[in-house]
Design a protein that fits this description.
The protein has helices at 10-16, 28-41, 51-57, 59-71, 87-96, 110-126, 157-167, 191-200, 215-224, 233-249, 256-278; strands at 20-24, 45-50, 77-84, 100-103, 130-135, 139-142, 145-147, 171-174, 179-180, 205-207, 226-231. The protein is of the alpha/beta class and 284 residues long. The strands form 2 sheets. The protein has an 8-stranded parallel β-barrel, surrounded by 11 helices. The protein has a 3-stranded mixed beta sheet with strand order 7-6-9, with no helix packed on it. The structure holds 1,3-dihydroxyacetonephosphate (13P).
Length: 284
């Protein structure tokens, strides 16, 4: 199938009470692992590409890899810009072939975030590309984003509802207590915020920082209206564990296929488990 916008599966996810995973890509092996997981689980999926990953892999390579993977699969696949920082970056990605974008205006004052997000929605929707907006500040470290615990700010539910009514984004990321990266303790998720916002808007809620969140917390969040969950760190941890072990135990190993192949398998296993947990397995 060609790449599709998130609207090919998010409305169904919200209606049927499951969530679709956004799995961030960092190199070829991530793309291969994620698509294989999706095919085996018969699950819709979202390839997430951050600006940092795009710089590392090259914009055209990201699009070419995602397109090739999607075309040989019979499950719906979206290629989504993660935390797009400006209108210009968003337009560049859409022109290159992304089927979905996030515009992260959460660091702007509320009204300015609405104004800028609306501009992105108007342009993206004109060419069939879905849009995710963000309100509140998600803590932790991801590429260029580094938000300390003190600076992380939960989304105000009334503002989130107004934000959606004005922008009509297809997916609504709100800060509800999760953070990018692994957690030291357990995240304190504000289910009341998820529930209030999800019940008042048509779009599903997006949970960023999906790595390391206990299974029961994920299930509860999904049951309350989370329809998209982002995962990156857990796949990185799974990959590097295998690479480290193999290289530590085999000092003569030099062929990258020998350690990246098993690492790819480890990512695939992690992604498959997430698809089952999120309830998206069998939904394609
Ligand atoms: P984790 O790295 O914590 O899984 O978060 C990923 C994410 O939210 C991408 O936007």
């Amino acid at each position: 199938m060609p790449l599709v916008s998130m609207n090919a599966f998010l409305p169904q996810a919200k209606k049927e009470g499951f969530a679709v995973g956004q799995f961030n890509v960092n190199n070829l092996e991530f793309v291969q692992a994620i698509i294989e997981a999706g095919k085996e689980e018969r699950s819709p999926l979202i390839f997430g590409a951050s600006e940092g990953a795009i710089r590392y892999m090259g914009l055209n390579n990201v699009v070419a890899l995602a397109k090739a993977a999607a075309e040989e699969a019979d499950v719906p696949v979206a290629l989504h810009l993660d935390h797009g920082s400006s209108f210009e970056v968003v337009m560049k990605c859409i022109r290159a072939g992304f089927s979905s974008v996030m515009f992260d205006g959460s660091h702007y004052p509320f009204e300015e975030n609405i104004r800028l997000t609306k501009k992105v929605v108007e342009a993206a929707h004109a060419v069939g590309v879905s849009v995710e907006g963000e309100l509140g500040t998600i803590g932790g470290v991801e590429d260029d984003l580094n938000v300390s615990e003190e600076d992380a700010a939960l989304a105000d539910p009334d503002q989130a509802i107004r934000f959606w009514e004005e922008t009509k984004v297809d997916a609504m990321a709100i800060a509800v207590g999760t953070a990018h990266g692994m957690y030291k303790g357990e995240p304190k998720i504000r289910y009341d915020i998820i529930e209030k916002v999800a019940s008042q808007i048509e779009a599903p809620i997006v949970l960023h920082g999906g790595s390391g969140v206990p299974d029961e917390s994920i299930q509860k969040a999904v049951s309350l209206g989370v329809g998209k969950i982002n995962v990156n760190t857990e796949n990185q941890v799974a990959m590097v564990k295998v690479v480290r072990e193999l290289l530590d135990n085999n000092p003569d190993m030099i062929d990258p296929r020998k350690y990246l192949g098993p690492a790819r398998e480890a990512i695939k296993k992690t992604v498959k488990a997430k698809m089952r947990l999120f309830g998206s397995s069998g939904k394609a």
